[in-house]
Amino acid sequence: MNTTRAIVSILFSLALFGARAEEQVHEWAYTGEHGPQRWADVKADFAACGMGKTQSPIDIHGAASGGPAPIKFDYHAVPLRIIDNGHTVQVTYAAGSSITVGGKRYELAQFHFHHPSEERIDGKGYPMVAHLVHKSADGALAVVAVLLREGAQNPLIATLWKNLPAEKEKEVAPEKVTINAARLLPASRAYYEFAGSLTTPPCSEGVTWLVLAAPVELSAAQISRFAKIYSSNARPLQASNGRAITLHK
Fold first, then answer.
1. Which of 34, 61, 76, 87 does the annotation list as catalytic?
2. CA dihedral sign of residues 161, 166, 167, 172
3. Is 87 a residue of the active site?
4. Straight-line distance from the first to the last Cα atom of the chain, in angstroms, rounded to the nearest whole number
5. What burial class does residue 116 get, using C-beta atoms within 10 Å of its C-beta: 0-12 exposed, 13-18 middle, 19+ buried?
6. What is the pLDDT of residues 103-123, one digit of tens each?
7. Yes or no: is domain 33-248 CATH 1.20.1290.10?
8. What are the angstrom distances between the C-alpha of 27 and each of 37, 38, 134?
9. pLDDT averaged over every residue in the chain
10. In the chain, what are the domain boundaries?
């Protein structure tokens, strides 16, 4: 009898530990009591989600024309490392690829996807968006957003979806599979620039946003494949609060 009770107690403890671990990993969500409207209440570190003045995403409108300030993309092929982290599908990028804008270099660290697009341009949204996250030597962040519209199949995304992990929170690195983020970029490099934040907790501000004006195509089937995993993983639009937005052509 004591042995049976001991086993039951151990099983209960393991189940409780698993539930607590799950809560810690997924302490915020896109719906429910831990959804976007409550992120700032989840923990003190997320205060910016509710109190920040330059939060992202925003509806991009009223942009001022800026002078030529091209983004220099220097992306290279790397071995694929991909994970479903419980909030999105993310690709971790090996060192050596970067952008340079305004004379500052930012290294590409990772890119991930949102469905539907978080950003809008003059009120227009898109089925999906890719966020390419970069970090400078001094720790500053710059995010390149690539809007994704329905159209032809996208070869890079075809490779990613073919290698989607079967299990969440377990990164996979399939042998002999390489990708190049340059294949995700549109031919036109015109972009909107503005100050913003991370679109997920802790919603840290001081992020430079570079939203490419021209969208890239992916197929309806490719959109549907992601939507089966994440039907909606986009933060609602945030107030612009009069921030400056510049369109660089």
1. 87
2. negative
3. yes
4. 77
5. middle
6. 999 999 999 999 999 999 999
7. no
8. 14, 11, 25
9. 92
10. 1-30, 33-248
